[in-house]
C-alpha cells in the first residue's frame, strides 16, 4: 500500500504547492489522521480519509484543485489612483474572496496607459497598487501577506502609441495564492 506522503506528492495539487507548503500540508494531514480518537493512527499508511483532509488543507493553502492561483483585475480613472465605478462594485467581491482565505499570499501589480512620462507612470502605477493594498489591510488582511509593484506603462493589455488614453491599461492585477 502506498504511503500517505507518496499519495500527497502524487496528487494534482502537489505541483501547485511550494516545497514548504507541501511539507506543511503533509505534516498537517498526518497530524489530523493520526490524532487521538481517529480510526487510523499509524503514520504513513494510505487511507481514504486523506482525500478530504488534503482537499481542506489545499483550500487553506489557497490553491485551487487545478493548481491555478486566483486573479482579479480592477480598473482606474485616468491619471488617478481612484477605481472606476465598475471596479468599485467588483472590489467587494474581490475583498470577500480574499477575506475567505485564512493565509493568502497576494501580489498587487499596478499598471497605467501611455499618457505621461515613464517616471510619472511608474509612480502612478505603484500608487494604484498601494491603494488596493491599503484597502485589503483595512479589511484585516495582514500587510505582510501583500506584495506590491508598479509596472508603469511597460505591460500594456492593449498596445497603443505614446500618449493614448486606454482604459483597459489603467489597472491593477491582483494575484492570490
Walk me through the structure.
This protein has 177 residues and is of the alpha+beta class. It folds into two domains: 4-60, no CATH class; 70-176, OmpA-like domain (60s Ribosomal Protein L30, Chain: A). Helix content is 40%, strand content 12%. The chain has five helices and four strands, in the order αααβαβαββ. It has helices spanning 4-10, 19-33, 49-60, 85-100, 118-138, and strands spanning 70-75, 106-110, 146-150, 171-176. Strands 1-4-2-3 form a four-stranded mixed sheet. It is elongated and about 55 Å long. The two termini are 32 Å apart. 28% of the residues are buried. Mean pLDDT is 78; it is low at 37-48.
| CATH class category name of the largest domain | Alpha Beta
- Provide the residue-averaged pLDDT: 78
How does the major sheet shape up?
4 strands, mixed
Structural class: alpha+beta
End-to-end C-alpha gap: 32 Å
Task: Using the CA coordinates, give the radius of gyration.
Answer: 21 Å
Q: What would you give as the CATH superfamily of the largest domain?
A: OmpA-like domain
Number of self-contained structural domains: 2
Estimate the helix proportion, in percent.
40-55%
What proportion of the residues form beta strands (DSSP E)? 5-15%
- The name of the CATH topology of the largest domain is 60s Ribosomal Protein L30, Chain: A
- Count of DSSP-assigned helices: 5
Low-confidence stretches: 37-48
**Could you give the order of the helices and strands?**
HHHEHEHEE
Give a count of the beta strands, DSSP E runs of length 2 or more: 4
The second-level CATH architecture of the largest domain is 2-Layer Sandwich
Strand order of the largest sheet: 1-4-2-3
Shape summary:
elongated
Amino acid at each position: 500500500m502506498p504511503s500517505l506522503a507518496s499519495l500527497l506528492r502524487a496528487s494534482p495539487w502537489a505541483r501547485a504547492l511550494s516545497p514548504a507548503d507541501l511539507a506543511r500540508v503533509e505534516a498537517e494531514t498526518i497530524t489530523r489522521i493520526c490524532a487521538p480518537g481517529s480510526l487510523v493512527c499509524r503514520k504513513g499508511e494510505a487511507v481514504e480519509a486523506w482525500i478530504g483532509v488534503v482537499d481542506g488543507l489545499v483550500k487553506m493553502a489557497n490553491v485551487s484543485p487545478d493548481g491555478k492561483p486566483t486573479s482579479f483585475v480592477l480598473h482606474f480613472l485616468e491619471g488617478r489612483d481612484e477605481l472606476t465605478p465598475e471596479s468599485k462594485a467588483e472590489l467587494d467581491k474581490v475583498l470577500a474572496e480574499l477575506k475567505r482565505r485564512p493565509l493568502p499570499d497576494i501580489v498587487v501589480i499596478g499598471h497605467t496607459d501611455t499618457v505621461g512620462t515613464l517616471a510619472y507612470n511608474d509612480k502612478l502605477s505603484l500608487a494604484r497598487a498601494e491603494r488596493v493594498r491599503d484597502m485589503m489591510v483595512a479589511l484585516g488582511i495582514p500587510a505582510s501577506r501583500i506584495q506590491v509593484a508598479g509596472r508603469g506603462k511597460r505591460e500594456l493589455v492593449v498596445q497603443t502609441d505614446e500618449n493614448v488614453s486606454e482604459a483597459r491599461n489603467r489597472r491593477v492585477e491582483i494575484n492570490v495564492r
